[in-house]
Write a structure and sequence with these properties.
The protein has helices spanning 9-19, 21-27, 30-34, 40-57, 61-64, 115-118, 146-158, 173-179, 210-220, 230-238, 253-260, 264-269, 271-282, 316-329, 334-360, 363-384, and strands at 2-8, 69-73, 79-83, 86-95, 98-105, 135-139, 163-168, 184-187, 199-202, 226-228, 247-249, 285-288, 294-296, 301-303. With 386 residues, it is of the alpha/beta class. α1 crosses α4, α10 (230-238) runs parallel beside α11 (253-260) and α14 (316-329) runs antiparallel to α15 (334-360). It binds ligand NAX, adenosine-5'-diphosphate and magnesium ion.
Length: 386
């Protein structure tokens, strides 16, 4: 994943003298030519950088194309390289007649990222404080199901929220609050406090009894952006519920089947039709999970390209609920939050699988690798904005 190249500067000087603009036009992209210093040692260094990038990629220079291997700078002014979605660290030097370049394919570049997703990242203002970075709340949890609300509310913090609250049944409040560190734990008897948050996720591990149903109906009627998942979807399918604010529904095939009155095999065989039926019944944004997760509203639809089968493990959907809720709380609209949330969840899963394998991956790894996914997307955004 590294490449090196040495260029004889007098040869470059001779070609520049002989072919002039024609040479520069063939080798450098318009973006590079706009800032190119025409000293032969500089041109030779850039030329070496392109060859070094091609070597790091294991692709021939002519096959990759000179102009597709771009030498640029990151936000800190450091030289870096780009080839399609891959990015490189670059180091250049010259002495007397020779220019040398070393390129290292960034590890995270093994996974290519979507510029469209990168451009959705919420902005972070240098003067932000925790109250300004989005307040998310997850309503869920029950005896034996602490894990799900822990995963959701912790993922909301890792996805950029300044504050994350977990609203759990009063009966498990003491046990649950002992277990959490950054997440603030609240009792479900204090649901009125929810009006102060920016977005909500409801359902993970909340249970299906009458008490849980009553909590669901109260929360579902709040006029706040909301992700409805897991047992929240169960109550939605069972009870006639009044909805006020914008909603994102995140069913897996089994939950989708219950929502639209079909069976899971039918849903698996007709994923797009199932999403259409769900949108017709409930509106909002629908996220049909599984391989090739579909994110759809009545106007837009995408099939997600990140993620892997290692994510088919208990709790990974709970992590997704927290991530999407966090993006809602940071001001994205429902479609954007669902699109970016599903994308980042899958990218974190791809990084987790790289490090821990598809077998060894567990849901909390998705939270652990979210920062790596953010770094990768941030780098892609910086480069594509240049
Ligand atoms: N550590 C924890 O506390 C965990 C708690 N969890 C909670 O457990 C509760 C129940 O969740 P479940 O998802 O088991 O609920 P469900 O009982 O609604 O769904 C499970 C059923 O759906 C089927 N299914 C799922 N994906 C399918 C697919 N792609 N094709 C066909 N069938 C499919 C399964 O085979 C199973 O029969 C929720 O509250 C959830 O949040 C889970 O999230 C796991 C982790
Ligand atoms: N084969 C797969 N490929 C990609 N992603 C998958 C695959 N199987 C499951 N996932 C993802 O893992 C998550 C599982 O969610 P869910 O079934 O709700 O789990 P849980 O309720 O246990 O948290 C979803 O985001 C889903 O898209
Ligand atoms: Mg689930």
């Amino acid at each position: 994943m590294i490449g090196v190249d040495l260029v004889y500067i007098p040869r470059v000087k001779e070609i520049m003298n002989r072919r002039g603009e024609d040479f520069l036009e063939r080798v450098f992209s318009p973006e590079e030519r706009a800032n190119l210093n025409l000293r032969p040692e500089t041109v030779a260094g850039r030329f070496a950088a392109k060859e070094a990038m091609a070597k790091a990629l294991g692709v021939g220079l002519f096959k990759a194309g000179f102009k597709n291997l771009i030498v640029t700078q990151d936000a800190r002014g450091a030289l870096c390289g780009r080839y399609k979605n891959d990015t490189f660290d670059l180091s250049l030097s010259h002495e007397r007649d020779y220019a040398v370049a070393v390129a290292r394919l960034r590890e995270s570049s093994v996974l290519s990222v979507s510029n469209e997703a990168a451009n959705l990242l919420p902005l972070v203002d240098e003067k932000d404080h925790k109250g300004a970075r989005g307040k998310a709340a997850i309503v869920g949890g029950s005896a034996g199901m602490f894990g799900s609300v822990d995963l959701s509310s912790s993922a909301a913090l890792r996805a950029g929220c300044g504050l994350s609250y977990a609203y759990v049944p009063d009966a498990v409040f003491n046990d649950f609050s002992l277990r959490m560190r950054e997440v603030i734990v609240k009792k479900q008897s204090a649901l009125d406090d929810l009006r102060g948050v920016d977005a909500l996720g409801i359902g993970p591990g909340m249970g299906r009894d009458r008490r849980a149903r009553d909590v669901f109906l109260k929360v579902y009627a709040l006029d706040l952006p909301m992700v409805v998942d897991a047992d929240g979807l169960y109550h939605l399918a069972e009870a006639k519920a009044e909805s006020a604010g914008p909603k994102i529904y995140t069913p897996h095939a089994g939950e989708m089947a219950r929502l639209i009155g079909r069976d899971a095999d039918w849903v698996n065989a007709h994923r797009d039709d199932a999403v259409d039926e769900c949108l017709a019944l409930y509106g909002g944004v629908v996220v049909l999970k599984g391989h090739g997760t579909i994110v759809a509203s009545k106007d837009d639809r995408v099939v997600n390209e990140t993620g892997n089968a290692g994510m088919a493990t208990a709790g990974s959907g709970d992590v997704l609920t927290g991530i999407i809720t966090a993006f809602l709380a940071q001001g994205l609209d429902c479609f954007q939050a669902a699109r970016l949330g599903v994308y980042m969840h899958g990218l974190a899963g791809d990084f987790a699988a790289l490090h821990k394998s598809k077998w060894g991956l567990i849901a909390s790894d998705l939270i652990e690798y979210l920062p790596e996914a953010f770094l990768r997307l941030e780098a892609a955004r910086e480069i594509c904005q240049k």
